[in-house]
Amino acid sequence: KAGVTQTPRYLIKTRGQQVTLSCSPISGHRSVSWYQQTPGQGLQFLFEYFSETQRNKGNFPGRFSGRQFSNSRSEMNVSTLELGDSALYLCASRRETGDTEAFFGQGTRLTVV
Amino acid sequence: GQQLNQSPQSMFIQEGEDVSMNCTSSSIFNTWLWYKQDPGEGPVLLIALYKAGELTSNGRLTAQFGITRKDSFLNISASIPSDVGIYFCAGRETSGSRLTFGEGTQLTVNP
Question: What's the confidence (pLDDT) of residue A1?
C-alpha cells in the first residue's frame, strides 16, 4: 500500500513568485492536513481538507491557500512568496477527519531566495 | 492556539543509555501520539495512546498517557545510533479533530 506522496521534494523560488505543492494521501484516506516546519517554530498547522472542503484552518495569512480534489489529492498554494516562507511543507493523511492517527509524506523543501 | 511543552529540547547520550522525554499541555487531551523524524524525511508514527494511564510499547520504545490527560512521556531503552532524530509528541483535544504538535526533542546518540 503506497504511503503519502508529496511532490516536488525540493523547490527553489524567488521572492514574489507563487508556488503550488501537491499531496496524494494513502489510498482510502480522505483527510489531508498541511503543516509548515521551520527550525525555530516546529510543526505549524496550515489547514485540513476533507471531502473537498476545508475543515480546519491555522493562523496563516491569506497568501496560503489549498484545495482538495474528488480523488482526495490536495494542493497548497503560496502566493507572493517571502523569504520567511522557506520551510519544509508536510502533508499528513487520515482515513477520516475524526481519526487520530495521521501519516506524513516526506515533505517538500521550499527555499525562497 | 494550543501549545504543547515538550522537553528536553535536545539530548546527547551514549549508545546503550536509556532516554526519557515528555510533553505537557494546559488542556485535556483524549489522544497522544509520538512521532520520529529522520533528517530530510517526514515524521513517522511510533506509538498512539488513547486512554488515560495507558502504557504502550513498540520494541525498545514505551509511552504512557498521563492520568491527568495533560501529559505523556516516551522512553527509549538501550539506545542505538539509528535512534538519532527528532521526536515529536502530538495530542488531540477532546473538543476537536486537529492535532497539536510539540516542538520536538533532538536526540543524538554517540557510538
Answer: 58
Cα–Cα distances in Å, from A28 out to A33, A68, A71, A93, A99? 15, 14, 9, 10, 13
Longest dimension (CA), chain B: 44
C-alpha atoms less than 13 angstroms from C-alpha of B8 in its C-beta half-sphere: 9
pLDDT per position as a tens digit, A54-95: 998 999 999 999 999 999 999 999 999 999 999 999 999 998
Residues B31/B92, Cβ–Cβ less than 8 Å: yes
B92:A107 CB<8 A = no
Q: Which residues of B fall within a CB distance of 8 Å from A53?
A: none
Minimum distance, in Å, between the CA of residue B70 and any CA atom of chain A: 17
B88, B34 contact by CB (below 8 A): yes
User: Tell me: the pLDDT tens digits for A30-62?
Assistant: 999 999 999 867 889 999 999 999 998 999 999
Q: Are A100 and B104 within 8 A, CB to CB?
A: no
Residues in B closer than 8 angstroms to A100, CB to CB, are 31, 33, 48, 50, 92, 99
Q: Residue A56 and residue B97: Cβ atoms within 8 Å? A: yes
DSSP 3-state of A87: strand
